[in-house]
């Protein structure tokens, strides 16, 4: 493990902040989560999770409030949750999660992003079996021993605890996400550098320089699509 989550997040946030794209995507994700249940995070676990994640990306409060207000109103805008799987250069594997109000448009855009950048779409299940859904939570101000102790006190047996630069990254089962956060909060830690439910590749792939450049371009094109929320892959980009 140890994918330097904060470096990846900072790189993506820096790129997206120039166009406010990341905020728009969070707006859609918050709206969908609020619309699917009550528009209150205390009674809606999906919304609570999205808001926790948005906090780590410094999403402005007015973006959050606008999305929740839209869900409270009479908007009947419907979004579909879609997952695409595919392959990049040299057999690299990619998973793309999208929220869209136009399935045909999104499918066409994702297929083109793969096809024009040395990749191709796969069928459902063609690569997902090589990834594990994982909760990733990062904190600062604690040592790995201290984090292990507080998790043990909360009777939590997580997958891994990694020291990464000035932070500690906890890898846990997906259903442990909120329990791990609560353990930290009970220890007085309320700010998280990372708060993600992600898809972790079981094995990372290192690409030759020419293939890696092509792969990175393909990932950038996919992430820039308005309907795409998350992109996961198995390539070690060396961050």
From TrEMBL:
<dbReference type="InterPro" id="IPR002876">
    <property type="entry name" value="Transcrip_reg_TACO1-like"/>
</dbReference>
<dbReference type="GO" id="GO:0005829">
    <property type="term" value="C:cytosol"/>
</dbReference>
<dbReference type="InterPro" id="IPR026564">
    <property type="entry name" value="Transcrip_reg_TACO1-like_dom3"/>
</dbReference>
<feature type="domain" description="TACO1/YebC-like second and third">
    <location>
        <begin position="79"/>
        <end position="235"/>
    </location>
</feature>
<protein>
    <recommendedName>
        <fullName>Probable transcriptional regulatory protein BN000_05400</fullName>
    </recommendedName>
</protein>
<dbReference type="InterPro" id="IPR017856">
    <property type="entry name" value="Integrase-like_N"/>
</dbReference>
<keyword id="KW-0805">Transcription regulation</keyword>
<comment type="similarity">
    <text>Belongs to the TACO1 family. YeeN subfamily.</text>
</comment>
<keyword id="KW-0238">DNA-binding</keyword>
<dbReference type="InterPro" id="IPR049083">
    <property type="entry name" value="TACO1_YebC_N"/>
</dbReference>
<dbReference type="GO" id="GO:0003677">
    <property type="term" value="F:DNA binding"/>
</dbReference>
<keyword id="KW-0963">Cytoplasm</keyword>
<dbReference type="InterPro" id="IPR029072">
    <property type="entry name" value="YebC-like"/>
</dbReference>
<dbReference type="Pfam" id="PF20772">
    <property type="entry name" value="TACO1_YebC_N"/>
</dbReference>
<dbReference type="InterPro" id="IPR048300">
    <property type="entry name" value="TACO1_YebC-like_2nd/3rd_dom"/>
</dbReference>
<dbReference type="GO" id="GO:0006355">
    <property type="term" value="P:regulation of DNA-templated transcription"/>
</dbReference>
<dbReference type="InterPro" id="IPR026562">
    <property type="entry name" value="Transcrip_reg_TACO1_YeeN"/>
</dbReference>
<keyword id="KW-0804">Transcription</keyword>
<feature type="domain" description="TACO1/YebC-like N-terminal">
    <location>
        <begin position="3"/>
        <end position="74"/>
    </location>
</feature>
<dbReference type="Pfam" id="PF01709">
    <property type="entry name" value="Transcrip_reg"/>
</dbReference>
């Amino acid at each position: 493990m140890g994918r330097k989550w904060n470096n990846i997040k900072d790189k993506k946030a820096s790129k997206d902040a120039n166009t406010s794209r990341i905020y728009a995507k969070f707006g859609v994700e918050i709206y969908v989560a609020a619309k699917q249940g009550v528009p209150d995070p205390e009674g809606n676990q999906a919304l609570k999770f999205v808001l926790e994640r948005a906090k780590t990306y410094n999403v402005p409060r007015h973006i959050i409030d606008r999305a929740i207000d839209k869900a409270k109103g009479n908007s009947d805008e419907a979004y579909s949750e879609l997952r695409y799987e595919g392959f990049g250069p040299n057999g690299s594997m990619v998973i793309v999660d999208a929220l869209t109000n136009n399935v045909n448009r999104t499918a066409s855009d994702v297929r083109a992003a793969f096809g024009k950048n040395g990749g191709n779409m796969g069928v459902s299940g063609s690569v997902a079996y090589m990834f594990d859904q994982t909760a990733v939570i990062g904190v600062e101000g604690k040592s790995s021993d201290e984090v292990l102790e507080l998790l043990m006190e909360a009777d939590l047996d997580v997958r891994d605890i990694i020291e990464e630069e000035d932070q500690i990254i906890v890898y846990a089962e997906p259903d442990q996400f909120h329990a791990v956060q609560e353990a930290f909060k009970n220890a007085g830690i309320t700010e998280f550098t990372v708060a993600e439910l992600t898809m972790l590749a079981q094995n990372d792939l290192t690409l030759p320089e020419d293939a890696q450049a092509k792969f990175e371009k393909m990932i950038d094109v996919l992430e820039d699509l308005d309907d795409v929320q998350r992109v996961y892959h198995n390539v070690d980009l060396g961050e």
